[in-house]
Amino acid sequence: MTELIKLTAAELAEKIHAREVSAVEVTQAHLDRIGEVDDHIHAFLHVDTEGALAAAKAVDEGIAGGNAPASALAGVPLALKDVLTTEGIPTTCGSKTLEGWIPPYDATVTRKLREAGVVILGKTNMDEFAMGSSTENSAYGPTHNPWDHARIPGGSGGGSSASIAAFEAAIAIGTDTGGSIRQPGSVTGTVGVKPTYGGVSRYGLVAFSSSLDQAGPCARTVLDAALLHEVIAGHDPLDSTSIDAPVPPVVAAARQGMTGDLKGVKVGVVKEFGGDGYQPGVERSFQAAVDQLRALGAAVVEVSCPHFVYALPAYYLIAPSECSSNLARFDAMRYGLRVADDGTHSAEEVMSLTREKGFGAEVKRRIMLGTYALSSGYYDAYYGSAQKVRTLITRDFAAAFEKVDVLVSPTTPTTAFKIGERVDDPMAMYLADLCTIPSNLAGNAAMSVPSGLSDEDGLPVGLQIMAPALADDRLYRVGAAYEAARDAAAGGSLVHKVPELGGTK
Amino acid sequence: MTAVAELMDYADVIERFDPVLGLEVHVELNTKTKMFCGCENEFGGEPNTKVCPTCLGLPGALPALNGKAVEGAIRIGLALNCEIAEWCRFARKNYFYPDMPKNFQTSQYDEPIAFNGYLDVTLDDGEVVRVEIERAHMEEDTGKSLHVGGATGRIHGAEHSLLDYNRAGVPLIEIVTKTIEGTGERAPEVARAYVSALRDLLRALDVSDVRMDQGSLRCDANISLMAKDATEFGTRTETKNVNSLRSVERAVRYEMTRQAAILAEGGSIKQETRHFQEADGTTSSGRTKETAEDYRYFPEPDLVPIAPAREWVEELRGTLPEMPSERRKRIQTEWSLSDEALRDLLNVGAVDLVAATVEAGASPDEARGWWVNTLAQEANTREVELADLAITPKQVAEVIGLVSSGELTNKLAKEVVQGVLAGEGEPREVVEKRGLKVVSDDSALLAAIDEALAGQPDVADKIRGGKVAAAGAIVGAVMKATKGQADAKRVRELIIERVGS
Amino acid sequence: MPNISRDEVAHLAKLARLAVTDDEIDVFAGQLDQILDSVAKVSEVAAADVPPTSHAVPLTNVFREDVVRPGLTQQQALAGAPAAEDGRFRVPRILGEEQ
């Protein structure tokens, strides 16, 4: 059984489809693993044992009946971030305000996963409404990094990254508004991809910041991420910002990359992302990764993106502004938490009291920040200016992609920090997303792929690769080539170096 | 609490002040589905049965814009002589209210789809006033709340409220006029005539049911007064809950007299929302707008910009029907109406009805006669709009047809119409049920004539002697005998035949 | 530019319908001040000739056909409601008026 959980999604699928192992056995192995270790990791908020086994059984029956598998990942168990709606399965977004809410509909991503025969094990922990970089803002307690339980697994999608790093699921779905797929991937030694904005439907993704949110794959290998990307991507008429174009050939690109040849590929190193505030071990790991890319035949140049340093402040105006509006619907009237409905309070009072009780500190902070930034008199200076910065960052990317095929940087300036270390210092917490935010603002595609362990603390470091909008396939080609070379040099996949679990919480 | 407001005599108001109006009309479009989701767009129904994750504002749900609603908005804009935006966006208007599922309204802010237009409005005496249109923009309707406990379902004193979101997300077009100045004493009339003309226009476009009683056409009236020597506008109030054409006129007039009384006393007008009270024609104070609401508008990130291609706009222009004002001119010529006759027709709001009746086969004169006289009176008695009477132009044409074929007399026809209005069915059914058929069986009539002649033998002699007019007495007797269900003309013919033979 | 007072925080909380405590007002005032101070940097480069970007992908004219699509049943609609009555969502008495 333990063998099964260590396999990649591609390997599992191959065995299931060849009937060497049943999807039910694979699912049960992961459910057992969750039962063993999740008390220590706390990656899951809800485990859907029955639903997962039923879905696995359906896949087995289909294959036994001679039908072709519904997709390349049919039968593979997956962990779903609790920000995507699941009909009949609780969806909380890590918030007290949605405790016990059972959506009457599936997100498009959820529907596509079900239709592809992917087995949804359960819903993963996250910072409340995806606001945070550590998963400490979950109303249901933090998730622990499988590499060191005293440390954060990244955020907001810490549950998803930890679940795959702890072998509780083969693959997972995350959402990335400012780095919530890539930064958790970086600090847990896993792969995380933020597809081009509009590449994956947002229908049923509970909005944090609508113009930035994007769901994407989390996996232990680049190929697995590509396989999952292909399942969830594609045009959706229910999301007006969904791009009506073919999904970039990400799986083919990953397979091409795995051959290890990057000749003819031009890589740009973002000059602005390094130096002050960057952990030396992270910088050394990044430098080694750049050397590796060069060794694979890529032409590496330094590229300046002067406005990237304005991305973080712009983000902390745009995201809170949109969130202040998106989260207004949590008002105790139609669903979710309601307090103080004792006949003495008006609807207005019940709204305010419930929102006060139902939201955590970070969510309230951002709602107020956004309310301020959108207020008349401040709009132009704050929100308006932030939107202009967005234009400037998009222009920086456009200029850079005139010269190079992909850009690279560290995914996040440091390795996983300690739980509790930054909770009282919002600004320090926000720095975790320094390098990931530009791609959210411009909407282009970006990936974090493990680049080894930091030499000073032995914790995972991530290499961020950024590609133009709709050129997601470039991420997979470069990422897979780099991954293959790094794994070959290190004698195996980084994630298998994660300490055996069962230690203290 | 509510003190009775002092009012100034209307003539004095006009002598001392100039009224300034601004009208905001909300129109619900009659698309099959809502603005941003595929839920059915239909009035009424069991509560919360025309809802989905999107219009209920469920977490994760997203809007998808109804192309037909955009088309309707552009057509309305074109009909109002507006420019159509080359590029525009939706915005979020943020405020909390329980009947609004997302606690923001998806609307348009500084980028309306249509702007800078006008509508020519004809007043009762034929004077034409041009009302400038500032903008027409798209937005979504809210749900409906029902207040339980307390008095008469009103918000004050209610114990709790019940929410139905069937109406949430219904497509709305908000049409805003520029300030209407210089109308003097005719301001209330102009306001009514504008809403009336707009209603006719929207009906001709077939974009809305335009039922003020059902809320598919709603008018908010901004009213302020300027002293004769003033150079700046006065503080305005916004009167809501104006649910009929007549109310529009009354509300404006009332606000003018109320505000004038306050200003004359040296007082100042509070900028506030006021509610029109249908029962007594007054307005009452609502929410005070001490500081401008901070709606924190920003571009709606879930919807992409709209950039209507010029070819599409021109194509839509080609679909515009004949505008009511042009149609009126044409009809006047075609039906050979005097200015006065046309005005009568307009005053009772009968142009469309008469036209439809003519289309259903009646002659213009007869159709006009029925609607302007008989039916207008009925509408008046019932205090409803002519168009809202429970009789269709087709039915009226049918009645007219029955008269000209001799099956009904005019008197009987009126009874048939009463029956139709009373919901007794189609004209022919009413004829059957009430037994109103003309006695056209000559033998029955001859029997009655013989009887009458026998009763008045001298009349027969007079007729034979050439005094044909004397036949009237016999006609009367026969009509009486047949309880009016005979065709008097035919009776007269038969009498002369009978006496002569 | 920023220097956010307790009153302003209280006003923001009111606009955002958050019944914050006095202690929270103090904490948020300090934090918002610090954050705003840092994000105000955006105005350094936001020149007048730079157009704002509201959407990451430059799409236009995405329209839906006017075709009825099945929604939720009344039961589904009300399933998550804190309180329901007669097929409607039951809420405490509403004080304010419709806008």
What attributes characterize this protein structure?
heterotrimer, A: 505 residues, alpha/beta, eleven-stranded mixed β-sheet, 17 helices, B: 501 residues, 16 helices
Roughly what fraction of the amino acids of chain A lie in strands?
Answer: 5-15%
Whole-angstrom Rg of chain C? 22 Å
| Secondary structure tally, helices of chain C | 3
Q: Supply Rg of chain A.
A: 21 Å
3D architecture notes:
The complex is a heterotrimer of chains A (about 500), B (about 500) and C (about 100). Chain A has helices at about 1-5, 10-15, 25-40, 50-65, 110-115, 160-165, 180-190, 220-230, 250-260, 280-295, 310-325, 345-360, 360-375, 380-405, 425-430, 435-440, 470-490, and strands at about 45, 75-80, 120-125, 170-175, 190-195, 215-220, 265-270, 300-305, 405-410, 445-455, 460-465. Chain A is α/β, with parallel strands linked by helices and about 500 residues long. In chain A, strands 1-3-2-4-6-5-10-11-9-7-8 form an eleven-stranded mixed beta sheet, sandwiched between helices. Chain A starts with a helix and ends in a 15-residue tail after the last helix. The relative contact order of chain A is 0.14. Chain B has helices at about 10-15, 65-80, 185-205, 245-265, 310-315, 325-335, 340-345, 350-360, 365-380, 395-405, 410-420, 425-435, 440-455, 455-465, 470-480, 490-500; strands at about 15-30, 85, 90-95, 105, 115-120, 130-140, 145-150, 160-165, 170-175, 215-225, 235-240, 270-275, 280-290, 300. Chain B contains 16 helices and 14 strands. The longest helix of chain B has 20 residues, at about 245-265. In chain B, helix 3 (about 185-205) packs antiparallel against helix 4 (about 245-265) and helix 8 (about 350-360) crosses helix 10. Chain B is elongated. Chain B is an alpha+beta fold. Chain C is mostly helical. The longest helix of chain C is centred in the N-terminal third of the chain and has 18 residues, at about 20-40. The mean pLDDT of chain C is about 95. The chains are: A alpha/beta (about 500), B alpha+beta (about 500), C mainly alpha (about 100). Chains A and C meet through helix 11, helix 12, helix 13, helix 14 and helix 16 of A and helix 1, helix 2, helix 3 and strand 2 of C. Strand 8 of chain B pairs antiparallel with strand 2 (about 90) of chain C, so a sheet runs across the interface.
